[in-house]
Design goal:
Helices cover about 15% and strands about 40% of the residues. It has about 240 residues and is of the alpha+beta class. It has a single domain (about 5-235), classed as 4-Layer Sandwich (Glutamine Phosphoribosylpyrophosphate, subunit 1, domain 1), CATH 3.60.20.20. The strands form 3 sheets. It has a 6-stranded antiparallel beta sheet with strand order 11-10-1-2-12-13, with helices on one face. It has a 5-stranded antiparallel beta sheet with strand order 5-6-7-8-9, with helices on one face. A two-stranded antiparallel sheet has the order 3-4. A hairpin with a 5-residue loop joins strand 1 (about 20-25) and strand 2 (about 30-40). The relative contact order is 0.24.
């Protein structure tokens, strides 16, 4: 697999939809994750990220504006459960959190979920989990998607990385490109290079996203030795 430049990946795709990045800094000291949302409709664009405990939540920027399908656009993308940081593009964050609290695995927790019910797109549910303990760091990513647009079949793919390599990461997103219907992500998570300080990485991602369609960005760097973290959030709506 060819290692990709994340800036070029984003610049060359006007509408990747929602995306999750997980990886590790080149010095090996920090775990990295990022999550972004984009929007084409007024409802999707009427959002911001807001802090919620150790995680974040999407909120309506203008609460007076009617939201279409709020159950699909208002959710907690990031939650923390002990040594685990959960990042997803929907309310399956809560499903994973609750399932793992009951002793289930990341993959087992997602067995009760499918793609989103937004026909004809059937937007994939993408999820990631980072586990940091005793100086070790591993992560996994999942995508639940319709089978080539057939809603009668849900494909379930989980990708586990038992050692997070320094200076590397993976990127998964909901759509291959803009379209009608929107074409679901294909293949395994993209292998990308990770680099820069949290501010440099945040600026690079935000500036690489399509100006018309980008909505919000979350980035977190976690110290693998101590668990301490730094977070950056960027909202187009201010």
């Amino acid at each position: 697999m060819e290692q990709l430049n994340i800036a070029q990946e984003l610049q060359n795709n006007a509408y990747p939809g929602r995306g999750i990045i997980i990886g590790r800094t080149p010095d090996g000291k920090q775990a990295v994750t990022a999550y972004f949302i984009m929007g084409r409709s007024a409802s999707s664009r009427n959002r911001i990220f807001a802090e919620q405990g150790e995680g974040i939540r999407t909120e309506a920027f203008d609460p007076s504006t009617l939201l279409v399908a709020p159950e699909l656009i208002i959710y907690s993308p990031v939650r923390v459960l002990g040594n685990n940081t959960i990042v997803t593009n929907g309310d399956q964050t809560d499903t994973i959190y609750d399932g793992m609290s009951e002793g289930k695995t990341f993959e087992e927790s997602l067995r009760v979920r499918k793609y989103e019910h937004d026909a004809p797109n059937y937007t994939p549910r993408i999820s990631g989990i980072m586990h940091i303990e005793d100086g070790r760091y591993d992560y996994a990513m999942s995508i639940l998607k319709s089978h080539n647009g057939n809603p009668d079949i849900c494909e379930r793919h989980t990708y586990s990385y038992d050692v997070a390599a320094p200076g590397e990461g993976h990127f998964i997103h909901t759509y291959m490109s803009d379209g009608s219907p929107l074409p679901s992500f294909e293949g395994e998570p993209k292998w990308i290079a990770i680099g820069g300080t949290i501010d440099e990485f945040t600026d690079m991602l935000w500036n690489s996203l399509n100006e018309d369609n980008k909505v919000s960005l979350f980035v977190r760097y976690i110290d693998i030795a101590t668990g301490a973290y730094e977070t950056r959030m960027v909202n187009k709506n201010k």
